[in-house]
Amino acid sequence: MEIAVSRKAHFNAAHRLHVKEWDDEKNKAFFGNCNNLNYHGHNYDLIVTVSGEIDPVSGFLIDMKVLGAIIHEEIENRFDHKNLNMDCEAFKELNPTAENIAVVIWNFLRNRLEKHLKLKVILYETERNFVEYNGN
Ligand code: NI
Asked: For residues 80 and 44, is the Cβ–Cβ distance under 8 A?
């Protein structure tokens, strides 16, 4: 029997989407407002879902206090009120699209979770646009 538990988190961050191999015109046409030279912000909402077997002794899959602390340390501390392009090592060479941010988040969290737990992240960049990554 597999069960899933989820925890929501939130961070505000600035970014600029830009491919340095493309000229300014192509970047502007492709990324639109997200190519703005002086960056712009998003209110990112994150849903972290952990799944696996319930521990028969505790009745927990994972202690939510522990999961919350991991998300705080690994994600909110790292990204909240940051300029992703300039402040975050992960995006020095990686375009901070919602897709890439979701993969980076997944990798940071994966390192902190016990091996038998499965992990999925859903990252909302706007209310309507979100991406999902489960490591596959
Ligand atoms: Ni943007």
From this structure: no
The pocket of ion ligand 1, defined by CB under 5 A, consists of 34
State pLDDT tens for residues 26-50: 999 999 999 999 999 999 999 999 9
Q: Separation of 106 CA from ligand 1 center, angstroms?
A: 20
Q: Which CATH architecture has domain 2-133?
A: 2-Layer Sandwich (3.30)
Burial of 33 (0-12, 13-18, 19+ CB in 10 A): exposed
Cα(2) to centroid of ligand 1, in Å?
A: 36
Tens digits of residue pLDDT in 126-136? 999 999 999 99
- C-alpha 111 – ligand 1 centre gap (Å): 27
